[in-house]
Amino acid sequence: MKNVHSILIMLLLIIAGCGKNNQPANELSTVDVTAKYPYKELILQDFMDVEYIPLETTDEFLCMGSLWGVGKNIIIATNFNNDGNIFIFDRKGKALKRINRKGQGNEEYSSYSRIILDEEKEEIFVNNSFAKKIQVYDLEGNFKRDLLIKKEFSLFEMYNFDKDNLICHDDFPGNTGQSFMLISKQDGSITREITIPFNEKKSIYVRIEDKTVEGQYFVYSPQCKHPIMPYFNDYILTEYSADTLYQYLPDHTLIPLIARTPSIQSMNPEVILLPSLFTDRYYFMDAIEKTIEFSTTNLLYDKQEKAFFRSKVYNGDYTNEEKVYLNSRRPINGEIPSWQHLEAADLIRDYGRGRLKGKLKEIAAELKEDSNPVIMLIKQKQK
């Protein structure tokens, strides 16, 4: 009987140990947004995978390379001038389809602030934010349905959350409540509100009174702000009014990830902490002072060293230092948290100066001055 008890105890210990390994403790780190941390310099390719995609150039496909969606088989891109063109390329950059449904009709978009690709359902979600609706098209450009958005919402930031929902951020200046929600891909209704605790509501915008016109204001915001950031299968959520960045899981669990000090509630002007790119090891963030200049400090938390730094990141495909700005473009998805578009003329110039290496050098050798840009995908390392 004693041996049986010993075996049972050992089995219980093994089971408990396995359970502990499957549920690692979350480590909450605290960053001082006013501190002058030392610099850490990194080569991008040492911690991220990089893929270069030259976009095919034809008379019908003159694309400036504003990237919105990347799937297993296709890429969605537009021009920067909101001319209504939506270009579909394959993953190697071959031109497939050009869609333009810009107009004032019921099945047309007057503008777009976001374009979301659902490759599994072969649908494109065009956020016609000023018309307060999201319009859904198939990959041929055929209209399918409208998702109507409440007039008091301003849903500029959104991502493909799961097969039924989009995850969205409400950027409406008059919002005094919660900012994050899931909305239905079928009708635009709110399926879940994500609750993040805070005291007084804070805004990222700076309003300056127009002294020439009574009651009017100039409104300024940082060039790059991503309150929703895809992180592998999860999302990092930034409530400007809170002192914590949260990780939101597919099962709707909300985990505190990074705390900041001093409290944003105690600062004037406020310093807002925004994530720019998170990996298994590194958390890249920006501390942005809320003034009209929006002066920014690049921050980095190294999970292995358990220390904070200011960061400088360089592209290893150049022979000398070429900085990479990880927050310069909107994240695409959990696999591709950052990207850049590289102008053909710049690459041809750098090729002529002997500044390029590897695959980027090979691509630049084939470009012409009027070629479409090369898309640089900055991807999470494959395990």
From TrEMBL:
One family from Pfam that matches here is DUF5128
The organism sits in which domain of life? Bacteria
Task: Tell me the protein's name.
Answer: 6-bladed beta-propeller
Species for this entry: Parabacteroides johnsonii
